[in-house]
């Protein structure tokens, strides 16, 4: 368990059935989701295209849980106001897409959202050293961003401990998210490494017994590892 922040499950809507998105959000909320993760892809920063502010606005109408918006887009500053207005609670931008990261994070804060940075598997933790004091969330990508259902990269785990130490030195109560390939096999190692926000798409929304079973299986795995 992390020293700072509560362990939270953040189902990722990318794996939901979009023809029944409202129902699925409500089902996940009733089954104990703590927030929802919304993946925004532009076909440029990542090869895939997903959804935009309209979907965030629609989901905002069916749940009061926080909406955690993950911008996998170039020039994210062009769209931060639109996602904030659509009801995002937190907005994370990619380190690799922001030449003026400090300014972009300030913009997110000015829009009234919690500010986050996501880092690709190849990006070192050290690159966040100068901005960690401005961060509410660090999303340590555990796959290369762009698609759901990919295989977890265990080599990303060592960055979590480095980031926890870096935040601890500054007494910063930052949330550390893991995003990609989190399931019953990988979730305990991510939490043991120091992650406290677990973004999970496929293992929840495409669980053969349904969404509630997906959430229950993750929680029971965490309980069995004495970290739930
Ligand atoms: C990947 C996205 C993830 C994705 C995770 O680019 O950032 O949030 O939805 O999905 P799973 O859990 O299926 O790997
Ligand atoms: Zn994501």
Structure description:
The protein is an alpha/beta fold. It contains eight helices and eight strands. It has helices spanning 21-30, 53-60, 80-86, 101-110, 157-169, 187-193, 202-205, 211-224, and strands at residues 8-11, 36-41, 67-72, 90-94, 114-119, 137-141, 175-179, 197-200. The chain has an eight-stranded parallel sheet. Helix 4 links the parallel strand 4 and strand 5. Helix 2 packs parallel to helix 3. The longest helix is centred in the C-terminal third of the chain and has 14 residues, at 211-224. The model has no long low-confidence stretch (mean pLDDT 96). Bound molecules: D-xylitol-5-phosphate and zinc ion.
In short:
This protein has 228 residues and is of the alpha/beta class.
């Amino acid at each position: 368990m992390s020293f700072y922040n509560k362990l939270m499950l953040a189902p990722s809507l990318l794996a939901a059935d979009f023809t029944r998105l409202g129902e699925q959000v409500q089902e996940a909320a009733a089954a104990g989701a703590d927030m929802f993760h919304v993946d925004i892809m532009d076909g440029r920063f990542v090869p895939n295209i997903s959804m935009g502010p309209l979907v965030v606005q629609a989901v905002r109408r069916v749940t009061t849980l926080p909406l955690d918006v993950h911008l996998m887009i170039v020039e994210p500053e062009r769209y931060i106001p639109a996602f904030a207005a659509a009801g995002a609670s937190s907005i994370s931008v990619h380190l690799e897409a922001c030449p003026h990261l400090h300014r972009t994070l300030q913009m997110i804060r000015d829009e009234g959202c919690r500010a986050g940075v996501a880092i690709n598997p190849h990006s070192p933790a050290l690159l966040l050293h100068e901005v960690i004091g401005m961060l509410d969330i660090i999303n340590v990508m555990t796959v290369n961003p762009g698609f759901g259902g990919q295989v977890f990269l265990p080599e990303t785990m060592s960055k979590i401990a480095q980031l926890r130490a870096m935040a601890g030195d500054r007494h910063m109560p930052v949330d550390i998210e893991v995003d990609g390939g989190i399931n019953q096999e990988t979730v305990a190692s991510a939490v043991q490494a120091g992650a406290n926000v677990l973004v999970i798409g496929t293992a929840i929304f495409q669980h053969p017994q349904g969404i509630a079973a997906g959430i229950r299986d993750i929680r029971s795995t965490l309980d069995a590892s004495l970290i739930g």
